[in-house]
């Protein structure tokens, strides 16, 4: 079992608040996020961008392993994930993640590729997470 973590810190509240995201690997190191990085054009990241990166990366790696297991050793895969954030009553909801894949796999049939791609989409851990239950523990200082 592997557990990965990330930490979000937010100072202030609402549209004027500012946040930072960090991860032990150092890939995220006090990376800014805020209302303006999510809904405007301020430099920084946002949850939807991070989910899109995670989904594209996870799916592409899952498909890579499925192709290797099926005996393919050469080629390239490039996936873009588009995560959609929409108004949901008084709040917002992430309503979908669309994967767009461009692949070059010499010697594979369209039918075999479709089966492997669909299997990777259904079984990559991030696809499963997007359908998972969420746990929450909290303390108030």
Automatic annotation (TrEMBL):
InterPro entries associated with the record: KH_dom-like_a/b, OsmC/Ohr_fam, OsmC/Ohrsf, OsmC_Ohr_Peroxiredoxin, Peroxiredoxin_OsmC
Domain of life assignment: Bacteria
GO MF annotations, alphabetized: peroxidase activity
Pfam families according to UniProt: OsmC (PF02566)
GO biological process: response to oxidative stress
PANTHER family on file: OSMOTICALLY INDUCIBLE FAMILY PROTEIN
NCBIfam families membership: osmo_induc_OsmC (TIGR03562)
Official protein name in the record: OsmC family peroxiredoxin
Organism this protein belongs to: Sphingomonas pokkalii
């Amino acid at each position: 079992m592997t557990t990965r973590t990330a930490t979000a810190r937010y100072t202030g509240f609402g549209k004027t608040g500012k946040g930072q995201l960090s991860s032990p690997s150092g890939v995220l190191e006090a990376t800014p996020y805020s209302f303006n990085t999510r809904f405007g054009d301020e430099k920084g990241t946002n949850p939807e961008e991070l989910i899109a990166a995670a989904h594209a990366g996870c799916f592409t790696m899952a498909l890579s392993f499925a192709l290797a297991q099926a005996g393919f050793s050469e080629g390239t895969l490039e996936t873009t994930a588009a995560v959609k954030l929409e108004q949901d009553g008084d709040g917002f909801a992430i309503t979908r993640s669309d994967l767009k894949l461009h692949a070059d796999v010499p010697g594979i049939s369209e039918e075999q590729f479709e089966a492997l791609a669909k299997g990777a989409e259904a079984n990559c851990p991030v696809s499963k997470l997007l359908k998972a239950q969420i746990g929450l523990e909290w303390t108030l200082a």
